[in-house]
């Protein structure tokens, strides 16, 4: 990405000095992330950046995963359980290192007036990334969609300020539960998907378990995390 013209969003010298000698991004080692294929090449000074709502799972959530994932793995044995859960508000974009703090500050200003809200994610759905190099088993949001769209509208405005890619036009907000390399939709959709949905529907107190609060937005840039609480 080319830096923005200085007249649009000047970076104070005090900010630039904070990053002196630390511009290089995280080391890229595919062995550390299961052989996943990067959607864009790693370059010195470029930091992969992602905006999302963290999913604060209830205590019983691992029990639901323990019921779901073994069944999904009978269809696709290479599925791997996610280590953390979230709902994306942006695509993965590339920021130059010295734009990270101005970008986060712009997000904070945009999101400062947004309210907390409840949402439900209880519809099992199969996803792939755009390149079809990864497949995900997810839980799609069935209530709270409008509030997520409001958050995305604010995030998109910041993306536009920095000449970055905005979010999908008709997003399906979801929590990814497990993933695998390659396109596994044929194995997971159809009968397998129906059986996974039955497991969710029949799980004890699933309605309460999968209704949670969105209380903050986070931004991950390289190995840095920033939190923006909702009102």
UniProtKB/TrEMBL annotation:
- Tell me a GO cellular component: nucleoplasm
Top-rank taxon, per record: Eukaryota
Q: What SUPFAM superfamilies would the database entry show?
A: LigT-like
The coiled-coil regions, if any, are: none
GO biological process assignments: RNA splicing; U6 snRNA 3'-end processing
- Keyword annotations from UniProtKB, A to Z: Hydrolase, Lyase, Nuclease, Nucleus
Positions annotated as active site in the UniProt record: 86, 174
- Per the UniProt record, which EC number(s) apply here? 3.1.4.-
For this protein, the record's InterPro entries field holds:
Cyclic_Pdiesterase (IPR009097), Usb1 (IPR027521)
Main location class:
nucleus
Q: Which GO terms describe its molecular function?
A: lyase activity; poly(U)-specific exoribonuclease activity, producing 3' uridine cyclic phosphate ends
Pfam families for the chain = HVSL
Location(s), subcellular:
Nucleus
Q: What class of enzyme is it?
A: hydrolase
Which catalytic reaction applies to this protein? a 3'-end uridylyl-uridine-RNA = a 3'-end 2',3'-cyclophospho-uridine-RNA + uridine; a 3'-end uridylyl-adenosine-RNA = a 3'-end 2',3'-cyclophospho-uridine-RNA + adenosine
Q: What does this protein do?
A: 3'-5' RNA exonuclease that trims the 3' end of oligo(U) and oligo(A) tracts of the pre-U6 small nuclear RNA (snRNA) molecule, leading to the formation of a mature U6 snRNA 3' end-terminated with a 2',3'-cyclic phosphate. Participates in the U6 snRNA 3' end processing that prevents U6 snRNA degradation. In addition also removes uridines from the 3' end of U6atac snRNA and possibly the vault RNA VTRNA1-1. Phosphodiesterase responsible for the U6 snRNA 3' end processing. Acts as an exoribonuclease (RNase) responsible for trimming the poly(U) tract of the last nucleotides in the pre-U6 snRNA molecule, leading to the formation of mature U6 snRNA 3' end-terminated with a 2',3'-cyclic phosphate.
**What is said about its interaction partners and assembly?**
Interacts with PLRG1, CDC5L and PRPF19.
Q: Identify its protein family.
A: Belongs to the 2H phosphoesterase superfamily. USB1 family.
Report the protein name in the record: U6 snRNA phosphodiesterase
Recorded name of the encoding gene: USB1
